[in-house]
Design a protein that fits this description.
heterotrimer, A mainly alpha (about 325), B alpha+beta (about 625), C mainly alpha (about 325), A: about 325 residues, mainly alpha, B: about 625 residues, alpha+beta, five-stranded antiparallel β-sheet, five-stranded mixed β-sheet, 17 helices
Chain lengths: ~325, ~625, ~325
């Protein structure tokens, strides 16, 4: 099953023309996974909004117009204003930038960490593995939120602190997945063969191991993005998040959003919707990728619904 | 697909409903005026106390104050209060945070003295009972001490009240409380390492000796000039415990730490305690005290006092709305406005928060604001009217520094209009003048200032965002640095913050003059010999020669304001709500010196109203 | 088998030692020391100038840190986690009294999570890429996309305004009133369960998809078995084994991760205990809770691993 990632065109799409790996993935995403495509579109919107926030936002995110405080959505401020008269729309657009930074950095950091730990621990094995795994065990036996709270308390609230905490948390947890994948691959004959012909370790890692763990890495990356945004919001609620006036969605929700939920519901509704929408999109996209990348789920023949379709039309009553 | 559309419709409905509920605004109308002093009394709405409507057909009784009749109190019922966090303990000597301990303290164990209930809003209304750190002899009533004498400047003698019995619990079993118990309790507080009084009154400040000279008198010897502070300390932080309670385990351990064996002479007995969740007190049937307003009425009125710990603010407000708690104080004006609209049956009152906060600047370290002109400029660039009228919706008071406009502080308070014109000008918004002053100080290009603020307060963080925009006008770039509360406290105490800090400015206890002498909470490190001298005089005079001390403090106001050491933004009103069935509730925050729950003794519940409302 | 268990149990020892190091020293790196808060409170109330060294000495924090560590470790080994710095209460009994609250919440949340995730997971696997699959999965994913505190705040704020109804505001012990206790826990449990359901829904779905491709399923089909039999008896049985692991992995996260629910719904559980201790820097409590939780979780993990190996015959003990 391991080499199948390289022979991706054998699957459903084999009927179509030969495409590059990514092109094929994209094609199948569009064709087979409408929800995944929808999710991808949301991710794209987030990225664009984040990148071009200064161009899109009608006002600066921290400019106060206190005379206009808590004004409901209207022509001038489409989504209303907050308790200092700051434009909610602008803050949400800039919030997209923060969410983008948080989710991408956290995912990147955790993927790097888990790949490093997983590769070393899984490939070296023996004593190295034993020692590293004790550390991972020790780390994993704290409930995530306790670790987050303690480390945030040490580092203090802030953007990079949130990224580091969540990155390490996801990274060390994720290293287990990478390690077990590496352990599986290591058992394969072609790795032994490569060793036998005297390939240097670095070459084995780069040529044989790394390509085979791309799928779990990509899946980890996308699901990690969504989890990071939600986790940032939870940290904000507990008072250790990104401090104001930086407009993080989680921060907006947990401070003014909660305080003014009755008086000015738009302060809770818009950041909440933005956050939910984006996390939903990322997750859907991630799920679609997982379906497409997981070699065990590939193959039209084994497909359950495929089987159903091929079956003669019997009148099996569905309840 | 149908399901999907259903969900979509449902969420749309939800949003529309939420937007609709919020669209009509009707501000709470309170227009505080400039405070005026008439015959030593401030006529100023520091607090607005709603009078709960008298139940139709209720029997009225004459109070001890001539001409004042009140509804006849009913016995029984449960009073349910709430707090955000739990007690830090039940034994005063095992905790360094007496202000939180004072809660079980004034309920289960009595102090020597406490505030005189009949002088408060329920009676003659001379004092608001909202400043916890305030103690005046004229408003102080004896509790366990029936009276006290000050024969010379080194001695305090307490005459212990006869006929006070401990709660009927083993091993004390209702024994009468006498001078030996008082001696034991005082000594324990001053001599046990870790106790609050031990930590704060060291060396020359500590009492020389504490001795029960007879069964009903206790004599305390102090150093010259230390009599006053010790007398005050004994009002709040020295609750009386039975001397046989701790004997078995040595004075540091003691059985008082455990709520099950806690025993005192107070109005309530601890019946149940679930850490971090709730504390149940039941009435002490043998409590000695009678209502100072209605002679002959035994206290307390309620059968049970339930104190719930509700950490989340929205939950507290919700609990109030649904009648699950009886009163809640500490709501900001805009939340109060919404609550008043949705639940008009709840009685709403307001009070001025006694803990005023100022932006304090590090002085004497070569920063631009060492120049008085820069400080003037910063003050003039601060648009106080805008903060008051817009940010606080008019629910704020412009001037609360250095003395807050509370009626009990009237003899120390100087109204703004009575200040010299030059001083008044310093506190008026004038950007052109401010720019000019900056130029004169050679700072026309401006500078950058970091202001530290705690993340515990949303309002304070918001306020600094406003001030940041205001100071931008005179080229001062403000970096708001929000830090977690403990880190903030530690930077405040260690003075390790960079430039400025928004923090408490010592207004709770003006006699202490904490901000003008070397002190942990003197954030600006202001060290004025002139004011230190005044403090040393006041410290000796207070509380036995109150009037002289007050005159001394009042005389300093113009000088302090002229120095412009700190920028004090307007002080907001805090709102409180209570159920219509709670009687005798006037938002007393502390009846006496740090006696934060003392008021519960005097409250009563109109059970007919409650039963009617609950339906 | 016995050797395997022994080996796993022995490996716990170095892990727990590492844990003690982490829990003891990490809290002492947290800026803002407990001494500073105490000094701050003492001076704010009294107006006196309080010396930091004095307070440090009173708290027993003036000794070198490593000596404090070995003292603490010595006591911890004997099951004595020390006293809190503020309340001067023994910590161990407090932890014991709080674990059931968090555990109850966690278990109820897992049950709710399974009630949501299992049907959706199985359905969306057997009807992959149909509208039903999309709606079901969207719902499960929406559940994890909503910040739990947001949802909880809405439950607290709106019903009270509209209908004058609110969840219980204070914890009702299970011994006092079982029914009321369950009702009280059900709201936070549903919210937590919704949040947790996403992960197990995914796992169920993936496993189901995988299993349904197996040869024996094809055999079952060709035997002409009814759909229900194929899906439930042949599919689900095998697909749910790894889901058990996921559930096991969720227990610790749910015990500790319910901080937010405990905070909003006033439940005095482990999470809030931890949060409040952290806010006042009560070092012994923080270390104690972390140590207790870590030990519990290590044991649960071991149990889950063993259960898994028993459930899945393919796993060999090496």
């Amino acid at each position: 099953m391991a080499e199948s990632t390289n022979k991706i065109t054998v699957g459903v799409a084999s009927a179509s023309k030969r495409r590059s790996y990514l092109g094929d993935l994209f094609y199948r995403l569009l064709k087979e996974k409408p929800l995944g495509t929808f999710g991808a579109a949301i991710v794209l919107i987030l990225l664009l909004a984040g990148l071009f926030a200064p161009l899109l936002a009608p006002y600066a995110y921290d400019q106060t117009y206190v005379a206009e405080r808590l004004s409901p959505p209207s022509g001038t401020t489409i989504l209303g204003t907050d308790q200092l008269g700051r434009d909610v729309l602008s803050r949400i657009i800039y919030g997209a930038r923060i969410s983008m930074i948080v989710s991408l950095s956290v995912s990147t950091l955790s993927v790097v960490i888990s790949t490093a730990i997983g590769l070393i621990s899984g490939f070296m094995g023996h004593t190295v593995d034993l020692v590293i795994q004790r550390f991972v065990d020790a780390w994993m036996c704290f409930p995530g939120i306790f670790l987050i709270l303690t480390i945030m308390a040490i580092l203090g609230p802030g953007l990079w602190q949130v990224i580091i905490v969540l990155g390490f948390l996801g990274g060390i947890t994720g290293s287990r997945v990478i390690r077990s994948t590496v352990l599986n691959i290591k058992e394969n004959v072609y790795v032994d063969a490569a060793k036998a012909i005297g390939c240097p370790t670095s070459r084995i890692l780069m040529r044989h191991i790394l390509p085979n763990i791309t799928a779990p890495i990509i899946i980890m990356f996308t699901t990690g993005m969504g989890a990071a945004i939600i986790a940032e919001a939870s940290i904000s609620f507990l008072g250790w998040g990104i401090p104001p006036p930086v407009p993080s969605w989680g921060g907006m929700l947990s401070t003014s959003g909660r305080t003014y939920m009755m008086t000015a519901p738009w302060l809770a509704v818009w950041p909440g919707l933005a956050l939910t929408f984006v996390v939903y999109g990322i997750n859907m996209f991630g799920d679609a990728l997982r379906d497409l990348l997981d070699p065990r789920l590939r193959g039209g023949l084994g497909r359950y619904s495929g089987t159903k379709k091929k079956m003669p039309k019997q009148s099996a009553p569905r309840k | 697909m149908k399901k999907k559309i259903g969900w979509l419709l449902f969420s749309l409905l939800l949003i529309t409903a939420m937007v609709l509920t919020s669209c009509n605004e009707a501000p709470v109308t309170t227009t505080p005026k400039e405070p005026t002093i008439v015959k030593g009394k401030i006529t100023y709405p520091t607090s607005i106390i709603p009078k709960p409507p008298v139940t139709a057909g209720a029997e009225m009784v004459q109070t001890s104050i001539p001409g004042k009749t009140v509804e006849k109190p009913q016995y029984g019922g449960t009073y349910i209060g709430c707090a955000a966090s739990d007690y830090t303990g039940f034994d005063p000597v095992s905790s360094t945070s007496p202000q939180y301990l004072a809660v079980p303290g004034s309920l289960t164990n009595e102090p020597l003295m406490s505030g005189d209930w009949s002088k408060g809003p329920a009676g003659s209304n001379n004092v608001t009972w909202q400043i916890a750190g305030m103690t005046f002899l004229q408003y102080t009533a004896g509790r366990i001490a029936e009276s006290w004498e000050v024969p010379d400047d080194q001695t305090i003698i307490f005459n212990i009240r006869k006929g006070i019995h401990f709660q009927n619990k083993a091993p004390v079993s209702g024994r009468e409380c006498d001078a030996y118990d008082v001696e034991f309790s005082l000594k324990r507080n001053f001599e046990t390492a870790g106790a609050y009084l031990y930590s704060t009154y060291r060396g020359a400040d500590a009492p020389l000796s504490i001795k029960a000279t007879s069964q009903w008198t206790v004599e305390i010897k102090t150093n010259v000039g230390k009599q006053g502070p010790l007398f005050i300390a004994m009002q709040g932080f020295c609750n009386i415990f039975p001397r046989d309670g701790a004997a078995t385990e040595g004075s540091n351990k003691g059985t008082f730490r455990d709520w099950k064996t806690s025993c005192g002479t107070g109005p309530f007995i601890l019946a149940d305690y679930v850490p971090n969740s709730s504390c149940t007190y039941v009435k002490n049937p043998d409590f000695w005290m009678t209502d100072p307003l209605i002679p002959g009425n035994k206290l307390p009125y309620v059968d049970k006092y339930l104190r719930l710990i509700i950490p989340d603010e929205s939950m507290r407000v919700t609990a109030l709305k649904t009648g699950k708690i009886d009163a809640y104080q500490g709501i900001t004006w805009d939340v109060a406005e919404a609550l008043h609209k949705t639940n008009p049956d709840l009685l709403m009152g307001q009070y001025l928060s006694p803990t005023s906060n100022s932006i304090q600047m590090k002085l004497g370290q070569g920063f631009p604001w060492d120049d008085i002109k820069v400080r003037y400029a910063l003050s003039m660039a601060t648009d106080r009217a805008k903060i008051k009228d817009v940010f606080y919706g008019g629910n704020a008071v412009d001037f609360t520094f250095p003395i807050m406009p509370f009626p009990e502080l009237a003899s120390m308070f100087t109204p703004f209009s009575e200040l010299p014109q030059t001083t008044q000008d310093l506190y008026k918004y004038d950007v052109t003048k401010a720019k000019q002053l900056m130029a004169e100080a050679g700072q026309s290009a401006g500078f950058t200032a970091d202001i530290l603020v705690t993340t515990a307060s949303q309002t304070q963080q918001d306020l600094l965002q406003l001030i940041k925009d205001m100071w931008k006008e005179i080229n001062v770039t403000v970096n708001v640095v929000p830090k977690e509360n403990t880190v903030y406290t530690s930077e405040l105490n260690g003075k390790t913050f960079k430039h400025m800090i928004l923090c408490y400015d010592g207004t709770q206890a003006p006699y202490k003059m904490t901000n003008w002498r070397p002190n942990n909470i003197n954030a600006g490190s202001i060290n004025e010999q002139k004011l230190i001298d005044v403090y040393n005089q006041v410290n000796v005079l207070y509380p036995f020669k109150e009037a002289e001390a007050q005159a001394l403090i009042k005389a300093q106001t113009p000088y302090i304001l002229e120095q412009c050491w700190q920028i004090t933004p307007p002080q907001p009103y805090i709102f409180y709500f209570f159920q219509p069935w709670v009687k005798n509730y006037n938002c007393e925050l502390s009846v006496g010196y740090y006696q934060t729950e003392n008021g519960s003794t005097f409250r009563w519940i109109d059970q007919k109203v409650k039963a009617a409302k609950k339906k | 088998m016995r050797a395997y268990i022994m080996r796993r149990a022995l490996l716990l020892i170095p892990t727990i030692f590492l844990v003690t190091l982490i829990v003891f020293f990490s809290v002492r790196f947290v800026p803002g020391s407990v001494v500073d808060i105490m000094v701050g409170q003492l001076s704010a109330a009294s107006g006196e100038n309080v010396s930091r060294a004095d307070v440090e000495k009173m708290m027993g924090l003036d000794k070198p840190v490593y000596i404090q560590y070995f003292n603490w470790l010595g006591h911890a080994v004997r099951g004595d986690l020390g006293e809190s710095l503020w309340q001067k209460r023994a910590i161990f009994p407090d932890i014991i009294s709080k674990i059931p609250i968090s555990l109850e919440l966690g278990i109820m949340a897992i049950i709710t999570g399974l009630l949501i995730s299992l049907p959706i997971g199985v359905y969306s696997a057997i009807r992959q890429d149909t509208v039903g699959d999309y709606v079901g999965r969207s719902f499960a994913i929406l559940c994890i996309s909503l910040p739990s505190f947001w949802l909880a705040t809405m439950v607290v704020v709106f019903p009270a305004t509209w209908w004058g109804w609110s969840p219980e505001v204070v914890y009702i012990p299970i011994t006092q009133n079982l029914g009321a206790n369950l009702i009280q826990f059900s709201i936070p449990a549903v919210i937590l369960g919704m949040v947790a359901s996403g992960t197990s829904m995914r796992m169920t779905r993936t496993m189901m998809l995988e299993v349904l491709r197996q040869d024996y399923i094809r055999t079952a089909w060709s035997k002409g078995l009814r759909e229900r039999v194929v899906v439930i008896r042949h599919g689900m049985r095998n697909a749910l084994i790894p889901v058990v692991t996921i559930i096991g992995m969720q227990i610790p996260a749910l015990i500790g991760g319910s901080v937010i629910m405990e905070q909003i719904f006033s439940l005095p559980g482990m999470g809030r205990f931890m949060l409040e201790a952290l806010n006042v820097r009560d070092y012994p409590i923080i270390s104690g809770i972390n140590l207790a939780m870590a030990t519990v979780i290590l044991v649960i993990n071991l149990a889950v691993d063993l259960t898994y190996s028993m459930l899945d015959p393919r796993i060999r003990y090496r």
